[in-house]
Give the backbone structure.
Amino acid sequence: MKHGLISPEAVRPMDAEASAAWGLSSSVLIEAAGRNCAAVLAEKLSGLFSKAEDPKQVPKILVMAGSGNNGADALVMLRALILSGLCTASSSMVIVSCRRDDSLTLEKMGVPVEEWQGFFPEDFSPDIVIDGIAGTGITGALKGKAHAMVLALGKYAEAGKKYLTVSVDIPSGLFTGWQPGMPVVDADFTLGIVPLKTCIYAPAARIHAGRILVVAGIFPQALINAYAEAELLDWPSASAAIPPVRADSYKYSRGLAEIHAGSEGSAGAARIAAAGARSAGAGLVRLLVDKDIYPLLASSAGGTMVAPAKDPSSDTNERFRADALLLGPGWGTGPGRRKTFAWALEKEAAGTPLILDADAIRLAAGTVFHGNAILTPHPGELSVLRNIAREDVLGNPRPILAEAAKELNAVILFKSSVMIIASPDGRLGVVDGMVPALGAGGSGDLLAGFCTALAARTKPFDPYACACAAATLLIECVCRKGLDRKFIDPLELAESAAEIAGEAWLENLHG
């Protein structure tokens, strides 16, 4: 299911409204968050540790608690873990940045609670460290005791101490303006409390959150909806926004995807983009390529119609009137590119969906589209398109993408370890990638092909919905098929995508 995302800055006013309008006091929210976090973590760790009746399997848990609500959540969490039998008071320990009244219960239960003295106790070697040092309230790099605790935690790990680090809500140190080099906890797991926080999905920060375990059931959905600034997308919800292919469909009713791609040395990009369009369900795929690579691609075209590129404005054959256009994969900067780009802009203005990838994106600077375009830049291309440093793009891309989508009047599908989709109407979607198998040439070409197929056959055309479905399809076909644990060729990925897309969008009146 989709989950709402909010910025850390929105947490305080949402908490205030939860108390004033919903009767959910801070103590009620902390209790619910701590208990639910404990339940999610206990389920995750159930295969690693036995219940407390087997002393050899009882995990030793160290809680690092700061002065804020995250620290309180962590303390409640430890209490719940002890009461559930996952650990014992004697196998646990708490270190606080300052004395807290809410640690009294744990002390009564027999848990040692110590104030931070600048070092870790040498006689306690934890299996699990629960990070509640700092939460969403910080607005700059960590300072003081919180900074010292995070640095010590890092040095503790560097010393060869093996344990799981579990952050509550966000890894301590993250905030909206976080940049690489600032102190932050490296978590193995982050217990992301719904609404999830946007800062953990910034591409530069995402790696520090480890595996994100969603913790729901604390805030009412109506309250979340009122503050959500983006949505975390998944394949089931994104694919449901695309209508299925009718059982009586045929090649023209499923859309003709026309792809202008490839150049000498980059023929593979054109082939992969065409494979992406076919696997996502286009009825016809027409690939227009430079004459010097035409023989190579035409000889192994399969179901793709390959033709030499020419002045597209002179092509009057109505039989091949495109339902969606893709420009750019491996296209280069050869002769005629700007003329083809100008022709495509006229088509987009008349209502034909236009997808721009790779080299074609560099031609789009200063263009204002007519709401029928999807641009698929990676960080380097976005930095050129917006004249912004690449580091800023990776650190906090949400406002950059929202502004770009509005100014260009086009949907932006930003490609990185985390994909972000921004629409001119303000919709913002996040696809949690972190799939290293996709970090190779060709996956972006495949994604552009997905977008083109969906744009060609989806009526009415909703570029945001098509981009969301394409991005989640890319992640789904890697993870569901177990391809995330092997190095893959994008053409192999297209085979997996065709199967998953077919399951979602092909009707079967016989089964």
User: Anything to note?
Assistant: The two ends are 27 Å apart (CA to CA). The CA atoms of residues 102 and 355 lie 55 Å apart.
